[in-house]
């Protein structure tokens, strides 16, 4: 068995929203008892991260409290925030939860039917370890998302973490009608901003995270199985002790008992759902491979092209822009009189050069 890095604990599929891009359905029976083996598994791997997941996990707050009381782990939660109360915020902070809050900025009412910042802003700003996570779609483009995130960052007392996911080709097809050329233009603009400033804005954190993921490729490479580790180093577990190849599907791959006693059989079941090995040759030719690393193992067939096109528009554009312009950082800024300046049209060129030289 491999080392468990994290567990997605699927509390149930009940949800208080109906997001247009949701890849889940109503699968689990809502009246469940928690198998005591779960507590043992978590405590045996106390250095891992336990991620509370749903549906909407805050609908199961009483169960979250029981697990936290009985288990030792690093706790996280992925939530839409609609059920947030002062009691819940105090509990999350007291137990040092990492909180990933799903929010699509100004597009939230369109894509999710609810704007958590508009409705729960005061409570959200009190969360100690907060990450805002949005989805790039035909209704939410990168610059709008990050500009809206920046407004929250300006008010937030800590250091806001940010994440943008690329739309999975599921749910409302209208959201997949993404203008890829617009995505490329915006991603290039954001990347050039990062190269010019090397600051700590929301845009810098987003692009910096992509660049770090690309660097890690040289340590990991493209393996024959998914980089995310879903089902292997990342377990996806429901309250009855069932295990799944991904936290977004409900095709059972085994149980805690089969994982422990018949691991080879369990691993075979997990790898049977893995599409990365089937497209390895194609992925190695892709401009986004060092960040995407083969992508989601569940994506295949007709949906793969849309999925890959968006990944290339984001990750491929970042890497190309860095390759074309990143040397300026190493050279200490743009030198006066250079004839071949890819940032020539940058109105802040002189200021940028002066800032960078002052750091040498």
Walkthrough of the structure:
α7 crosses α8 and α7 (180-197) runs parallel beside α13 (303-325). This protein starts with 5 loop residues before the first strand and ends with a helix. β7 and β8 form a beta hairpin. The chain is of the alpha/beta class and 360 residues long. Helix content is 42%, strand content 12%. It is built from 15 helices and nine strands. The protein has a domain at 6-179 and 198-220: Alpha-Beta Barrel (TIM Barrel). A nine-stranded mixed beta sheet has the order 6-5-4-3-2-1-7-8-9.
Q: What's the arrangement of secondary structure elements?
A:
Elements: E1 6-10, H1 37-44, E2 49-53, H2 61-70, E3 74-79, H3 86-94, E4 98-102, H4 108-111, H5 116-124, E5 130-136, H6 142-155, E6 161-166, H7 180-197, H8 202-220, E7 234-238, E8 242-244, E9 254-255, H9 256-261, H10 263-271, H11 280-283, H12 289-292, H13 303-325, H14 327-330, H15 349-359
Helix pairs in contact: 7-8, 7-13
């Amino acid at each position: 068995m491999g080392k468990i890095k994290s567990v997605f604990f699927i509390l149930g599929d009940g949800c208080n929203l109906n997001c247009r891009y949701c890849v889940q359905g109503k699968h689990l029976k809502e009246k469940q008892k928690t198998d005591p083996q779960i507590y043992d598994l978590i405590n045996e791997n106390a250095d891992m991260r336990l991620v509370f997941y749903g549906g909407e996990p805050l609908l199961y707050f009483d169960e979250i409290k029981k697990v936290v009381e009985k288990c030792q782990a690093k706790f996280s939660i992925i939530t839409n925030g609609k059920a947030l109360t002062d009691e819940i915020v105090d509990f999350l902070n007291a137990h040092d939860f990492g909180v990933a809050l799903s929010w699509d900025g100004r597009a939230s009412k369109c894509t999710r039917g609810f704007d958590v910042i508009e409705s729960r802003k005061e409570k959200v700003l009190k969360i100690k370890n907060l990450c805002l996570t949005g989805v790039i779609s035909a209704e939410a483009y990168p610059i709008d998302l990050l500009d809206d995130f920046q407004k929250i960052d300006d008010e937030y007392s800590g250091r806001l973490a940010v994440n943008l996911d690329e739309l999975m080709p599921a749910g409302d097809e209208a959201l997949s009608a993404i203008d890829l050329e617009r995505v490329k233009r915006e991603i290039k603009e954001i990347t050039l901003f990062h190269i010019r400033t090397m600051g700590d804005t929301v845009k810098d954190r987003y692009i910096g995270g992509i660049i770090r993921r690309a660097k890690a490729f040289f340590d990991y490479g493209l393996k024959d199985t998914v980089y995310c580790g879903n089902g292997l180093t990342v377990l996806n577990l429901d309250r009855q002790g069932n295990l799944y190849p991904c936290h977004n599907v409900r095709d059972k791959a085994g149980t805690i008992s089969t994982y422990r006693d018949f691991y080879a059989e369990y691993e075979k079941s997990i790898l049977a759902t893995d599409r990365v090995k089937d497209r390895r040759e194609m992925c190695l030719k892709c401009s986004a491979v060092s960040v995407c690393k083969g992508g989601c193992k569940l994506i295949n067939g007709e949906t793969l092209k849309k999925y890959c096109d968006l990944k290339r528009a984001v990750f491929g554009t970042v890497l190309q822009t860095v390759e074309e312009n990143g040397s300026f950082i190493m050279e200490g800024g743009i030198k006066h009189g250079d004839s071949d300046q890819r940032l020539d049209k940058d109105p802040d060129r002189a200021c940028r050069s002066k800032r960078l030289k002052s750091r040498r």
